[in-house]
Design brief:
The chain is an all-alpha fold. The chain has one domain. It contains 19 helices and no strands. The chain has helices at 2-10, 15-49, 51-67, 74-87, 91-119, 125-129, 136-156, 158-165, 169-193, 198-221, 237-261, 264-271, 276-287, 292-310, 314-350, 358-384, 388-411, 415-426, 428-443. α4 crosses α11, α4 crosses α14 (292-310) and α13 crosses α16 (358-384). The longest helix has 37 residues, at 314-350.
Length: 452
């Protein structure tokens, strides 16, 4: 009876909506298991490495997220252009976009990886991260391995953009889950056979991160995605211009997002302490549960908006946005319950290895809430391609973020909480401008900068 009702609910509505519902349900399952997997390996990682080494690892991962943006936004440009080509039924152009993107990124990352890997052995890692001097060489080797693996990931993960364009986001969630599960298995093996090796631990993360999308790409481009299979003969400079014209704006936006969201670990390590990095990460990982459904819906919103906007179906976008806003309100209520339960959850989960202040938990919850509010509207803007105002707002936010975070953390003596509140303060302009622009676009009253 229940199964029949679920099938009826899924099959009701516009074809685009039905497709979205199917992806949402699958994504809930995959992301749900992924969150549980993350919760399982966090305390295991803490036990295996200790607080300081785990802090080093988390900080290196944050630095690698900056490295991800060196594709100058081409991958995000591909998501839009490929979505437009698929919506128009032009498989030849779609294949051309995929081919041009893969060969462009291959050239970019093969060159950059060589430079960054070499640089890893001259950077004073121990000084930068306030780690013990005897760890410097181990950190350098690990950073080089992680940069190399990340370069492989960035090129091979183009297959995920095809899933996005086809509005099959659940498959991306599946392969992300597979990476996490494999990493968890390796951690368990390391615990049984080795002792506290940062190098082995980081290598395991790097390999699972790189190899899963690589094998997924080889599998799908030889099979189901054969019509999109990259070919040197289909690489076109005109396609690169299409990808780059929109991609450079996505690149600037992503740089702004990296400055705001991915510098926290480095700032905490440098201006507070290395031991405080796992505390922040633990609070963020716990509260990311209330992001689960919201992220699933917003990921679907981008690709679906590309199709709907191309076909002039603004009413569908309006209805979907209203539903997403209801989910956002629901996540706020859930976050309040999670904050209240946080002390008990942290004690059971971390077994007393970390002390997470309540004020840090609350500040992280506020940061996540304002981030999801901004992303809800920005993903609609991304789907329309009208992102110039958003780009300017992210530039402003990124310029303000670091000095404000340092001021709160050091001058006001707020520590890690100050760095998180610096993120919140920098995003206030975005929280105001983004919904205003979406409202103007959907009402047809966007003019000037609002329409670019």
């Amino acid at each position: 009876m229940i199964v029949a009702k679920i099938k009826t609910y899924i099959g009701r509505g516009h074809e685009r909506t039905v497709r979205a519902k199917k992806n949402v349900i699958l994504s809930v399952v995959f992301k749900g298991i992924g969150v549980l997997t993350g919760f399982a390996y966090f305390p295991l990682s803490l036990e295996y490495l200790g607080v300081a080494k785990f802090g080093v690892f988390l900080t290196l991962v944050s630095i690698l997220d900056w490295f991800a943006e060196l594709d100058i936004g081409i991958a995000n440009g591909l998501r839009n252009k490929l979505g437009e080509a698929v919506a128009a039924g032009d498989d030849e152009k779609a294949r051309g976009y995929v081919s041009t993107t893969i060969f462009a990124l291959g050239g970019i990352f093969s060159g950059i990886a060589v430079v960054f890997v070499a640089a890893c052995f001259v950077v004073p890692w121990a000084d930068w991260l306030h780690a013990e001097q005897q760890m410097s060489w181990e950190i350098a080797i690990l950073a080089a391995l992680m940069f190399g693996a990340f370069a492989i990931h960035m090129v091979s993960a183009i297959v995920f953009q095809v899933f996005y364009a086809l509005q099959r986001m659940a498959m991306v969630d599946f392969y992300n889950l597979l990476s996490k599960v494999l990493f968890l298995v390796v951690i368990v093996v390391l615990i049984y056979f080795t002792e506290g090796s940062l190098l082995l631990f980081g290598t395991a993360k790097a390999m699972t991160f790189a190899l899963v999308p690589l094998f997924a790409g080889l599998y799908y481009f030889r099979g189901e995605f054969r019509r999109f299979r990259p070919s040197w003969g289909l690489v076109r400079s005109s396609y690169f211009k299409d990808l780059f014209s929109l991609g450079i704006q996505f690149f600037v936006i992503r740089i702004g997002m990296i400055v705001i969201h991915q510098t926290n670990n480095l700032l905490i390590a440098h201006y507070v302490s290395l031991e405080d990095v796992p505390k922040y990460e633990a609070a963020y990982k716990y509260l990311s549960i209330f992001l689960l459904l919201f992220i699933i819906l917003t990921n679907q919103l981008w690709a679906a908006t590309v199709e709907a906007y191309q076909k002039g179906d603004l009413e569908w976008v309006k209805n979907t946005l209203r539903s997403t806003m209801k989910i956002w309100v629901g996540t706020l209520l859930l976050s309040l319950l999670m904050i209240a339960a946080a002390p008990v959850v942290f004690e059971k989960w971390l077994q007393g290895k970390l002390e997470i202040p309540m004020v840090l938990t609350v500040s992280v919850a506020v940061s996540i809430a304002i981030t999801t509010w901004v992303n809800m509207f920005n993903l609609v803007l991304n789907g329309t391609g009208k992102i110039r105002l958003q780009m300017y707002a992210w530039i402003l936010a990124s310029v303000v973020n670091i000095p404000v975070s340092i001021f709160f953390a050091t001058t006001l003596g707020m520590g890690s909480v100050g760095i998180v509140l610096g993120t919140v303060a920098s995003m206030v302009p975005l929280a105001i401008l983004s919904p205003l622009q979406v409202k103007k676009i959907l009402s047809g009253s966007d003019r000037g900068l609002w329409a670019k």
